[in-house]
Automatic annotation (TrEMBL):
Keywords: Carbohydrate metabolism, Glycosyltransferase, Pyridoxal phosphate, Transferase. It comes from the Bacteria. It catalyses: [(1->4)-alpha-D-glucosyl](n) + phosphate = [(1->4)-alpha-D-glucosyl](n-1) + alpha-D-glucose 1-phosphate. NCBIfam families: P_ylase. Gene3D superfamilies: Glycogen Phosphorylase B (3.40.50.2000). Its cofactor is pyridoxal 5'-phosphate. SUPFAM superfamilies: UDP-Glycosyltransferase/glycogen phosphorylase. This is Alpha-1,4 glucan phosphorylase.
């Protein structure tokens, strides 16, 4: 089959693009230039750009079909793709054509571009990583498909009312999504509940999963891969026909409405387990639909099940899709008639698992009772996998009952629960952490028993970020400067070339241009004085990330300013961005206090021009792309041993921000590469932090012995910030689970070094350039290369 034949090539001249735009406006949007709204123009532009990618997709599919390669299948409950228009314009080479054509037809390109809505189908780092990896897979011509859920409502929209976070639903696709291709023919039926009888599992409820595709173009290559997102659809069986014919219409569709709830909403918990049955249903829904699709694709060209692992590697993005392991066992044993051992061998060669956390509370477990009710056959399979696992543990470590208890897939106390991480480790050939330190800590702590038994299963793949999105698209000015400095734009596909910027750090003319770009980005953010140091902390709110530590520093600066306005260091703007899970009270209190402190500082004339705190609401990928280019200082201040990797740290360093950070996650590797002299290090390391946590940590002793710390906390306790934040201060004094007070002095001292460094702008710029120059390692292309080498073993197919 040659899908390359018969395709009319789409034009790349301005006239052809304009013609296509016009034709799409008439024939596909069904309107005219005279009556078209900006929304019509936007949707039409999207179709016109999408068509160019679709043509490349057809050529990619043909080449991939011809070569019958090993496919990388990425299973993820979350994708934070970011805005699509800018990226698809760039990747289709129409960035200049599009605005010109829009103008020629009488539309305002800026107004049209502003209508692009980012699909917020993820919470934070895990979802954004998935998007960066797919970008790199396509750019590197690797046959890959991402599978996920098409949530009707994405991550909630955050606003502030009286400084407190308020959540509103994110109905991102209410206008329809012009980037999406619905594929209703590829529906799959998914069962839930019911019982296991002699004839096998008889589900008590069935629903359909209906896919749609989003194209994932590679940069600088023809390849276009795709993501397949599933939405739940009621089947005919969900409509109660007897009620319908009795005229009880609302009751008749009740069950159908409930069935479609499965893909209704993204759970807004980041790194915290929530344990609701609907979420378990979502997970199985994703897994069941995706595996059926993978098998259908396998069967297209192959016949022998033994070939399956050679044709498919399935990466589990954390434990959310781990039910894929018992589900593939069920399909192979119950539906395909393979024997258990054969099936287990296939499963064990097919799946790999990435762990994204070190927080014990983020390790998913499901009540045995709930799982057994929802998926009775899967629970049986999990028990049988557990028998095999515990048999191996007993024979390797005879008499070690405690080890058996720890490694079991079933936790017994206080309630019987299935441990999804243990299942993921047991059913895969590779388990990876996402930064060197994280991978080490996983084998030393979380998975110590498993790493003892199966040392070869564990590896590291340090995260990375897409230089296309987070440098080229986010920061076009700096990108041009980099290209002119290096004399090539090849760095966009080989980020190690950034090393060529290092000598330019010594060139004062280049430094001046670099500073100009930073100031331009700051001016574009519109935060006032672009001469002020822009100090940025952008990430989800979590106590382990320690936004509260940054806040104590701000209060300290404020106190210093009040006591001696003449002696203040350098003008600073501190910018926060991020959401808190709606049920995470402590994180929401920290948000409230930040806004209260920002208001107090803004209202006090003594701070004017010296200190500002800003907190734009609803931090998302769109906003990240505006903030990151402008940042001077990158706050990466988690308690050491808690942040698995971080990826914002990489994006900021690549854009020339200098990090102030602990030795946590990928900060360690950033510092190794950019050099200790270009990084502001502070605080306890992971060993020191664990030791202090394990002893009888007394936060109050730091409060008692440090007058500036005491003054900061006392001010909060006394209600100096509109009476807000008493709970935050009290919890720091009483418990301080994440050692904020222990690291306070070291942090404030490091911030004083930051201020001193800023006063020498030539030095600062050198440091900034060296951060970018030495961060080429943090491209997600390198991450994908590492996955290919250490886990996936797939090879490129070029269309
Ligand atoms: C979300 C849900 C469950 C477990 C982990 C997460 C998550 O987002 N983890 C984050 O993943 C990022 C990508 O690997 C890391 O950079 C972050 O450190 C980690 O918190």
């Amino acid at each position: 089959m040659d899908l390359r034949n018969g395709l009319r090539p789409l034009g790349s001249t301005p006239a052809e693009f304009e013609q296509d735009l016009l034709s799409n406006l008439y024939y596909r949007r069904g309107t005219t230039v005279e009556s078209a709204s900006a929304q019509d123009a936007y949707e039409t532009l999207a179709l016109t750009v999408r068509d160019r990618l679709a043509a490349r997709r057809a050529r990619t599919a043909a080449a991939q079909y011809d070569s019958n390669p090993r496919w990388v299948y990425y299973l993820s409950a979350e994708y934070l793709l970011g805005p699509q228009l800018d990226q698809n314009l760039l990747y289709s080479g129409t960035t200049d054509l599009a605005p010109a054509a829009l103008k020629a037809l009488g539309f305002d390109p800026a107004e049209v571009a502003a209508l692009d809505v980012e699909p917020g189908l993820g919470n934070g780092g895990l979802g954004r990583l998935a998007a960066c990896l797919l970008d790199s897979l396509a750019t590197m011509d690797i046959p890959a498909v991402g599978y996920g859920i098409r949530y009707d409502l994405g991550i909630f929209k955050q606003s502030f009312e009286n400084g407190e976070q308020v959540e509103k639903p994110d109905d991102w696709a209410f206008q329809g999504d012009p980037w999406e291709f619905p594929a209703p023919d590829d529906r799959n039926r998914v069962g839930f509940y019911g019982h296991v009888g002699p004839e096998g599992w008889v589900p008590g409820e069935v629903i359909d999963g209906e896919p749609s595709h989003l194209l994932v173009p590679g940069y600088g290559t023809e390849t276009v891969n795709f993501i397949r997102l599933w939405r739940a659809r009621a089947t005919e069986a969900s409509f109660d026909l007897s009620r319908f014919s009795a005229g009880q219409y609302a009751e008749a569709v009740d069950q159908a409405v409930r069935a479609e709830n499965i893909s209704k909403v993204l759970y807004p918990d980041d790194s915290t387990e929530s344990g609701r049955e609907l979420r378990l249903k979502q997970q199985y829904f994703l897994v069941s639909c995706s595996l059926r699709d993978i098998i259908r694709r396998f069967r297209f060209r192959n016949h022998d099940w033994a070939e399956f692992p050679a044709k498919a590697v399935i990466q589990l993005n954390d434990t959310h899709p781990t039910l894929a392991i018992p589900e593939l066992m069920r399909l192979l044993v119950d539906e395909e008639g393979l024997d258990w051992d054969q099936a287990w061998s296939i499963v064990r060669q097919t799946f790999a698992y990435t762990c994204h956390t070190l927080l014990p509370e983020a390790l998913e477990t499901w009540p045995v009772a709930m799982l057994g009710r929802l998926l009775p056959r899967h629970l049986e399979i999990i028990y049988r996998i557990n028998d095999g696992l515990l048999g191996e543990v007993r024979s390797r470590f005879p008499g070690d009952l405690d080890r058996v208890r720890r490694m079991s897939l079933i936790q017994e106390e206080p309630e019987r629960r299935v441990r999804m991480a243990n299942l993921a480790v047991t059913g895969t050939f590779a388990v990876n952490g996402v930064a060197e330190l994280h991978s080490q800590l996983l084998t030393a702590t979380t998975f110590h028993d498993f790493a003892t038994m199966w040392p070869d299963r564990f590896r590291n793949v340090t995260n990375g970020v897409s230089p296309r999105r987070f440098v080229r698209l986010a920061n076009p000015g700096l990108s041009s400067l980099i290209t002119s400095g290096l004399g090539t734009d090849a760095w966009l596909r080989d980020l190690s070339l950034l090393a060529g910027l290092a000598p330019l750090a010594g060139d004062s003319a280049f430094r001046a241009q670099w500073r100009t770009e930073k100031r331009r980005a700051k001016a574009a953010l519109g935060l006032g004085d672009p001469g002020a140091l822009l100090d940025v902390m952008i990430k989800r709110f979590h106590e382990y990330k320690r936004q509260q530590l940054k806040l104590l520093h701000i209060i300290t600066l404020y106190h210093r300013l009040k006591s001696d306005p003449g002696r203040f260091g350098v003008p600073r703007t501190v910018l926060f961005g991020g959401k808190a899970a709606p049920a995470y009270t402590a994180a929401k209190s920290i948000i409230h206090l930040i806004n209260a402190v920002a208001a107090t500082i803004a209202a006090d004339p003594v701070t004017s021009g010296q200190l500002r705190v800003v907190f734009p609401p609803n931090y998302n990928v769109t906003l990240a792309e505006k903030i990151i280019p402008a940042a001077d200082l990158s706050e990466q201040i988690s308690m050491a041993g808690k942040e698995a990797s971080g990826t914002g740290n990489m994006k900021l360093a690549l854009n020339g921000a200098i990090t102030i950070g602990t030795l946590d996650g990928a900060n360690v590797e950033i510092r190794d590469r950019v050099g200790g002299e270009n990084f502001f290090l502070f605080g306890l390391d992971a060993t020191g932090a664990a030791a202090l946590r394990g002893s009888s940590y007394q936060p109050r002793s730091y409060y008692d012995s440090d007058p500036e710390l005491k003054a900061a906390l006392d001010a909060v306790l006394a209600g100096a910030f509109g009476g807000v934040g008493h709970d935050v201060a009290q919890s720091l004094l009483d418990r301080d689970e994440y050692l904020t007070l222990a690291d306070y002095r070291s942090y404030v001292d490091a911030q004083d070094e930051v201020s001193a460094a800023w006063q020498d702008q030539e030095r600062w710029t050198r440091m900034s350039i060296l951060n970018a120059a030495n961060s080429g390692f943090f491209s997600s292309d390198r991450t994908v290369a590492d996955y290919l080498d250490r886990i996936w073993r797939a090879t490129p197919v070029r269309p």
